[in-house]
């Protein structure tokens, strides 16, 4: 939980901003809180609210939110080797509380301490999840209820890019990581003109495939397992 606290510097204003934007889009407080409690995923919440503001159909809103959150499937796949022995009930709450920050903290901790027991890994994830998810929900309520009183010259939208930079930078430790990052950035920029975030949806697997290819070639060169 202590290691998670630094992320609150960006999570809290990010959540407050969502509460403000969602109420300005016409949602009432209950609907805004439903977003944060049930969806619990800032990027897809912002995407959905923006599309609702543009009078997009419910189908487009749902598909776009799922597309943005597709990265959670990638996160889940990388956690399987560490949390495979968890019970069905434990996997349910892990899936619910799996956000960018809880994933980034947990996977780095597991890799640094590979001898942790399953219960220790679950406890670490739970600590990160509580420290991050509860403030997100509370700050969303603050934004939805008193956000209109925040002066316009206080820019809250800095939170999203800083959050992702803080998570990604420490994880770029190998040539495979760097290759995946570089290729996904180039692909995302090249496909930025596609509608509804489709460019990011395509760029992500391209970056993953690049990283896997580089890692496989390095393993073959070093004589290790592919």
Automatic annotation (TrEMBL):
Domain of life per record: Bacteria
Keyword annotations: Cell membrane, Membrane, Transmembrane, Transmembrane helix, Transport
Topological category with respect to the lipid bilayer: Multi-pass membrane protein
Keyword Metal-binding assigned: no
Keyword Transmembrane helix recorded: yes
UniProt similarity note: Belongs to the AzlC family.
Name of the protein in question: AzlC family ABC transporter permease
Organism of this sequence: Paracoccus stylophorae
Lineage, opening ranks: Bacteria, Pseudomonadati, Pseudomonadota, Alphaproteobacteria, Rhodobacterales
């Amino acid at each position: 939980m202590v290691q998670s606290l630094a992320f609150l510097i960006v999570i809290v204003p990010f959540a407050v901003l969502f509460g403000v934007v969602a109420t300005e889009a016409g949602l009432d407080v209950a609907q805004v809180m439903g977003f944060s409690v049930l969806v619990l995923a800032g990027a897809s919440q912002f995407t959905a609210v923006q599309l609702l503001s543009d009078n997009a159909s419910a189908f487009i809103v749902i598909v776009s939110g799922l597309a943005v959150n597709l990265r959670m499937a990638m996160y889940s796949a990388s956690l399987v080797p560490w949390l495979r022995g968890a019970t069905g009930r434990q996997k349910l709450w892990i899936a619910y509380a799996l956000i960018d920050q809880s994933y980034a903290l947990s996977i780095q901790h597991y890799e640094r301490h590979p001898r942790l027991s399953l219960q220790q890994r679950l406890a670490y994830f739970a600590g990160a999840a509580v420290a991050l998810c509860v403030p997100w929900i509370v700050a969303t309520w603050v934004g939805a209820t008193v956000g209109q009183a925040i002066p316009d010259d206080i820019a809250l939208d800095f939170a999203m890019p800083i959050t992702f930079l803080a998570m990604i930078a420490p994880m770029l430790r190998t040539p495979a990581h760097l290759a995946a990052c570089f290729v996904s950035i180039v692909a995302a920029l090249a496909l930025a003109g596609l509608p509804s975030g489709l460019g990011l949806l395509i760029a992500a697997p391209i970056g993953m495939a690049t990283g896997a290819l580089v890692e496989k070639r390095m393993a073959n060169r070093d004589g290790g397992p592919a």
